[in-house]
Records
---
Amino acid sequence: MPLLAFLLLAAATIFRTRTSESAMATRHAIVERMSHGMMVLDWRHRVVDLNLAAKRLLGAEGQEVIGQDARDLLAAWPELLRIITHDAAAYAEVAVNDGQPEHVFDVHASPLFDSGGQCTGKLVLWIDVTENKAAQAANERQRFALAALAEREQVGRELHDGLVQVLGYIKMQAQASSGALERGRPDTANAGLQGIAAIAQEAHEEIQDFLLGARATSRLSSGLWDAITDFAERYSVVYGLRIDLALPQQAQDIVLDPVAQVQLLRIIQESLTNVRKHAGASRVDLAATCETYCLQVIVRDDGKGFDPHEVPGLDDGHYGLAFMYQRAEAVGARLDIISAPGRGTTVLVQVPVAQQAGEYATTPRG
């Protein structure tokens, strides 16, 4: 029998027969030795019974609390007041820090009914989930670390391949410019040096993008939206691009799988890189909305736009947009790029949202 169901039965028995010796013996055997806190209330929220663990949690050791109004006893616990005054079963998560290491409790308040179906009171149960929370947090940190490491390795390979090409070009141009000077052709040499300066500037920006992205990825363990906000603000400062954020709390409350968070962040990064390189935009709107079973992220610029059907793809050596589509597909998301010449560009990412509480909003495809 599940713990909560068993305790509901025990609490109902105690509530009905608490004056008998057998009930007191049952109470001592069942609830007084429990590590979980347990309190029974009547229909007017008065304390009918509570065990030693509950007294300790409430700081009521040595006090006579039987008959007290639980709303007075729990005045410092607004979340508990909410669930004990709720008509139906309710739940809250509370943290207790009374000078000791913090403990986290799942607190359940469940109605008690008599044989006629009349509500006679409530059972309030504190279940210590500190160790479970610590294990979950450790597992979460590991998942983020692995996701960030995999992403860092992939981006590092991309950066390495790009730098190899850049350095090869610079070497070739430097040799050509040196030869032009030796042949008395300063104009040709100057053009070559200007080409070197341009490609070096582009490589410098690529490295800046890599460092900004690496910093944002490393911040994901503290929250996706904090990482996105930090990245957007720094990108705006480095490149002088105005980025307006609209991240409502409803969207921020959605929790994505760590791998999905990395991929969504990288899609946003690539979108902003494309704006910087190609759009000639003065402003970017970065927004998130919560739709039915869907987290929607929008990156919209006021740049010159383009015809999406005429953009070179992966086969032509152009990787940016192709990688964005691949990243979206890897986590079951949908990516749409909406643009037209002279009308700016909108990147729309739709990430599926879990329908069950406690699940990730999306899970990467295996």
---
Amino acid sequence: MRPLVDCRNRCRFLLAVSIAAVAVGRASADFRFRRDVLPILSENCFACHGFDKGARQAGLRLDDRTSALAKLPSGERAIAPCDPTKSELIQRINTADADERMPPPKSGKKLTPAQKEILRKWIAAGAEYQKHWAFDPPLPNAPPAVKNAAHPIDAFVLAQLAAVALTPSPSA
């Protein structure tokens, strides 16, 4: 039976590793489509501009890049890659006119300034879409070089421990 102190240390370690992983992920890029952009579109836009043809408004589909970049019946483009100033989406989320604003006030949804900035940066960067992660082929990940790793999995654990200045518990 493990002492309570060991369980507490294990919980602290797992929390530290999780925090370190989030920090590394955030430092690697300002934003990522699947992590940052897709949740904004999904929560605020897809109900009216998604895959459901019966619910779709204004002939705009934002869940598909080809459709999102196409000319709308109005002649405008919802998304003009690399040019947020010509993107109707950016104009609509920033307008003060309640009749033009997206998402509409009656929906009860409202984008935060941070969400608006993420969408602007995404469009400025080319408005790339990413398929679901499950369709990405797995990539090899070489174990980090650490001392005393009896197995490649141990190398990953020991590297994370070292990153947060912890040492493994002694063998039972």
